[in-house]
Write a structure and sequence with these properties.
heterodimer; A: 458 residues; alpha/beta; Aconitase, domain 3; 3 domains; 15 helices; B: 195 residues; 33% helix
Chain lengths: 458, 195
Amino acid sequence: MEPRTLFDKIWDSHVVAAEPGYPSVLYVDLHLIHEVTSPQAFQRIRNRGLGVRRPDKTVATMDHVVPTVNQRDPIADPATAEMVNQLEQNCREFGIRLFGIGSPCQGIIHVIAPELGLTQPGLTIVCGDSHTATHGAFGSLAFGIGTSEVEHVLATQCLLQNRPRTIQVRIEGRLLPGVAAKDIILTLIAAIGVGGATGHVIEYSGSAIRSRDIEERMTVCNMSIEAGARAGMIAPDDVTFQYLSGRPFAPSGKAWEAALNGWRQLQTDAGAELSRIVELDASVMEPMVTYGTDPGMGIPVTGLVPEADPRALAYMGLRAGQPIMGLPIQAVFIGSCTNSRLSDLRAAATIFKARKVHPGVRVLVVPGSQEVKAQAEREGLDRIFATAGVEWREPGCSMCIAMNGDELLPGQYCVSTSNRNFEGRQGKDARTLLASPLTAAASAVCGSVADPRRFLQS
Amino acid sequence: MEQFRILTSRLVPLPAANVDTDQIIPARFLKTTQRAGLGRHLMFDWRFDSSGRPRPEFILNQPHIAGARVFLVGGNFGCGSSREHAPWALADFGFRALISTSFADIFRNNCLKNGILPVVVEQAVHEALFRLVADNPSVEVTIDLTSRVVMLPAGEQAPFPIEPFARQCLLEGMDELGYLLTLADRITEYEKARK
């Protein structure tokens, strides 16, 4: 038997048909839906007189445009209300389970699917959102698709796909205190560039990956797309299985034992063919921050802005040679599918506890789901945030994509735990600096880009 | 989907590399439940200033590009989000083909599903095309999908890669869902075998 990668094993077991001269037809185990990329897909299947083939494998939520304040009030913006209404109607009409506004399970799609136990090893998972790569942290093959492909999956539960190649990223060494999973992925993208993994999936391995908990693994896999990768995957292990055990949609009883047996096979074999191997040393990594207008333009927080694309530097109002630390900021956003889970909020709380947000800095903390919010409140994190002067919000994509009114004013600098710092991403002419929750919280307290390590207990 | 066979057109040059889908269509324009009419939002923040006035120096605002259907763009074009609104905006604006040294994966797939042909050429050809259009903005190229070549004004031919099935869909104006639906029985067999 030829040695195969984790990716190969999942791909091969999901091919429905592979005719010569045609892309492979890949079966989709789990189709995740949100309100922005689905309306046109539902309209098209309705117009063609088609139904949804497997509503039982389809789950929807509302995240991109939902308000994060007074979320259950009637929606003021007509365009937002229309998108929300269409998803509600579509789910009702086609029999799709919807965790919408008002549901205790509502939240960012890539936060709720894992916490519900929907995301499992060995599955193919798709969604009309590029950060679907997040679910690869469980050893699934998960990738983003466009609205036409959403239509295809609704109608046939399948997709036509050309097989990508595999890059292995091996990360060894122990992360130092104050250095987070977010810093790992920002380091990688800085190293290989925003097109570095185009045409490939990334498999992450090594001791620095194995020692990450499941939420940290999700942070790493989430931003694989920012290096151009279709998907990012981490083979499942006891960390994965312990997380999944007992979750609402995870198998239980005999089915759990059977599932575990299958999941334990989901490893990359020695000698499997890889397109490229990238090796990184976690022990030399530092807290990172981006200075430019793509996620690859990152430096250690102690670093100097390098010579870079003049357009990017002009947009960001920065000069080559200037230290990034100490740059005054006007806002901090802790949230997004990258970093809005309980461990992210706990990390931020360790810095906000008994401290105050710097005057003049607006800080939004947006939990990734109703479940995360409830748990954070049980632990008193919301009180820590409130005392510090942080705005504690309701779940949604919020200021990551700025479609719901949570946005920056032109020219404002924001240290953000989200995943994209493109021009205009968080508001027209807004200036995003991507970082970990620790770095973001430290910066909020200092009023400028700050090194979280100065806040560590000695 | 409109058929694509042979296209002769002037070029609209945009050399910037890594133009992401937030630039192609900002998120605030995604609050639509339609596919049509997005051309007016194409590259909105590069085309218009904060007061909504067209920036005269930006290529998409220059009168001479009217009728040009080929967008000559920088490497890694379309990186970022999976939003299919990006090719919808490009198509609605009038583009039928893009030429670059590379395209982001999801964006490239989305283009093919909307009758837009993403053409990858070698760096030398890419640079030559930018020089040609700088010297003469009315220069034309011919993109021949049947033989998979770009024909340059002086007669050189640059071949470009495209998967056979994607090419067939464009040549015939066929959408993939039609093919997938013919496989319904195979899908059922697969589902039964998995149980």
